[in-house]
Amino acid sequence: MVFNKRFLKNSLTALIVAVPLISFANASQDTLQERHEVRNTAKLKVHGKHHEAAGKVTPKDKINAHISHHLQDAHEFVFFSDEEAGTHYGFPLPVILIDNGVKVFSSSKFDHGHAVAEAGGDYYTLHHGKIYKTDAQGSLKFDEHDHPTNVKPLDLSITKNVFSLLITSLLIFLLFTGLAKGFKKGPNTLPSGFNRVLEPLVIYVRDEIARPNIGEAKYKKFMPFLLTVFFLIWLLNLIGLTPLGINVTGNIAITLCLALFTFIITQFSASKDYWKHIFWMPGVPVPMKIVLAPIEVLGMFTKPFSLMIRLFANITAGHTVVMGLIAIVFLMKEQLSVGGSIGTSLALTLFISIIELLVAFLQAFIFTMLSSLFIGMAVQDHEHDHEHHDDHHVNDPEIPVV
Q1: How far is it, in rounded angstroms, from Cα 393 to Cα 387?
Q2: End-to-end Cα distance, the chain
Q3: How many Å apart are CA 99 and CA 357, to the nearest integer?
Q4: Among 156, 107, 99, which Cα is nearest to 133's?
Q5: Burial class (CB in 10 A: 0-12, 13-18, 19+), 229
Q6: What percentage of residues in the chain have a pLDDT greater than 90?
Q7: Mean pLDDT of the chain
Q8: CB 116 within 8 Å of CB 138
Q9: Residue 3: what pLDDT?
Q10: Of 146, 272, 351, 384, which has fewest CB within 10 angstroms of its CB?
Q11: Other CB atoms within 10 A of residue 121 CB
Q12: 351 three-state secondary structure
């Protein structure tokens, strides 16, 4: 089978989007498992034994538990729920486990964390979003820190994060396939439809990010990666502002994978001058070279680390603030009228949501900008001819030496 260059490029782009194998928007979004855990937040866990705590769970406890679970991944989508009727509307996702073979079944078998799932003669239970191997009764053993000690199978399930990333990658592929077809019609053809939005953004990434930081001679090589990262983060951030309960870029595993791609591309594209500056800084005394070498090596890892933390922290903080503002409806309903509490909450939430729209673009821009900057520092040839230039002036009798 013969693969052409375009097919390989498209495959690589799809791989970059899909490898980092989405939970925010409305306060009504959570799973039945989360609600079950919220109702049990007043339980005390002592060496694996649960005892009922005195008193009722306060609204503040419920809100904190809801926000905490909202920021986590899940094995199902729940769009809205009726707590009184115990009815929840959504759809399950496939569970894929590696445990003495491949076990594939629907997450509906867990009954939102209330039932034990049987697959291939083995039993599994869902506890705090993680799957543990158990018996038919769903028994879990806990250590002194109240962490389950049951075996955890290798979980390759299609969770909300994975499902949302696959949908987003497919959306990016379709959008840019349409944009590419538009360019085939000729350079003088005006874009139509959504291409009128995409083309200015592509040009912006090229002219304002790639060219200034990487250089005119080498920027084209890295444009597919920079465009993929920019639009992936931007679209995921925008989807996170919808009532779908998605929080992909607020997941540190996702930002870690994106930062690793930048790190790998930077190191494997680096020039000899880059490595010389890392391990044996030119133009400085030898003792300083020895001191600077470990600092430069550490800087190789702190750069992608800053990319990972910046994106994760900003998106997580934004979602937490919006969820907290929505919670005003529940916290202030006794002090204010229903209309007053809802109005206050909606006004503040609308204001923060508008800010989040700006942050969604800004974080995509910053991640792409810093990635291009790190790549540019690695691939550009550094000028080391200052000493030779000075020597030339010294040896040239026509040029006076100051």
Answers
A1: 10
A2: 68
A3: 42
A4: 99
A5: buried
A6: 18
A7: 75
A8: yes
A9: 42
A10: 272
A11: 7
A12: helix
The single residue listed with the structure tokens 């799809």 is: 14
- Helix 286-326 vs helix 338-379: angle between axes, to the nearest 10 degrees? 160
| Helix (H) / strand (E) containing 174 | helix 160-184
Q: State how far the Cα of 111 lies from the Cα of 306, in Å rounded to an integer.
A: 39
Look up tokens 């928007």; give the residue. 25
* Cα 258 versus chain centre, distance: 8
Residue range 209-255, pLDDT digits in tens: 999 999 888 899 999 999 999 999 999 988 887 767 677 888 888 99
E strands in 36-108 = 43-46, 49-52, 76-82, 87-92, 94-98, 102-106
Element holding 290 (H helix, E strand): helix 286-326
- CA 109, chain centre distance (Å): 28
Question: CA–CA separation, 74 vs 129, rounded Å?
Answer: 6
Q: How far is CA 6 from CA 3, 223, 248, in A?
A: 8, 14, 29
**Residue 376's closest CA among 227, 240, 223?**
223
Question: For residue 77, which of 107, 103, 46 has the smallest C-alpha distance?
Answer: 107
